[in-house]
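Budget justification aside, the reviewers requested a transparent look at the raw inputs and outputs of the sequence design task funded under Objective 1. We therefore reproduce one unedited record. The lines immediately below are the structure tokens for a 196-residue chain.
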């Protein structure tokens, strides 16, 4: 079952204080932060900007992973942040480089950019290795080089809020399958069958 966008919005909103909305930040939301071997989770990137501004204009960031490009698939941008010149990024030795997301602002009555704050802009699937001998953590962080926000519905111009940006950080915990519990369960099952 695929989590709904509203679930992600609620989770991201809970993670953001009013003080955070006074400045710009990138948020990494991991749907299921604890995975068994072969399990997958959804990772979503959000942009939060000062509440006095109109809407997110554009962001360029890298999602750095302590495991490099291992486990990543289904990289995608989230509308409306998939405007012209956008990119899902490229998998590489440090994670995903060159994520470019943005939306246009058409100064006209009754139209304009999506002012959601925070706004989700990128999503991917992370899958744990099929075999895991010992627990380990996958550390995630962002490294942002552009963070522009629209300040007026009547202008296509944007302002940079890169200075003072709070970068995103998250951890995915990978744990071995509870083999002992499976073996114990099979033993109990076998004992129960013998008694019949």
């Amino acid at each position: 079952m695929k989590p709904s966008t509203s679930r992600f919005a609620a989770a991201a909103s809970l993670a953001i204080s009013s003080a955070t909305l006074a400045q710009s930040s990138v948020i990494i939301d991991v749907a299921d932060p604890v995975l068994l071997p072969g399990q997958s989770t959804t990772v979503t990137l959000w942009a939060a900007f000062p509440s006095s501004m109109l809407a997110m204009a554009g962001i360029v960031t890298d999602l750095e992973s302590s495991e490099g490009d291992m486990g990543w698939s289904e990289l995608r941008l989230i509308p409306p942040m998939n405007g012209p010149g956008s990119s899902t990024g490229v998998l590489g030795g440090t994670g995903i480089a060159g994520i470019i997301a943005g939306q246009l602002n058409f100064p006209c009555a009754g139209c304009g950019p999506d002012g959601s704050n925070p706004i989700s802009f990128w999503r991917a699937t992370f899958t744990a290795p099929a075999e895991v001998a010992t627990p380990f953590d996958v550390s995630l962080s962002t490294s942002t080089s552009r963070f522009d926000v629209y300040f007026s519905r009547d202008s296509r111009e944007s302002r940079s809020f890169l200075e003072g940006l709070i970068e995103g950080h998250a951890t995915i915990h990978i744990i071995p399958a509870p083999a002992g519990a499976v073996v114990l369960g099979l033993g109990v099952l076998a004992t129960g069958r013998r008694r019949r």
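The two ends are 39 Å apart (CA to CA). The first strand starts at residue 25 and ends at 30. Computational costs for records of this kind are itemized in the attached budget.
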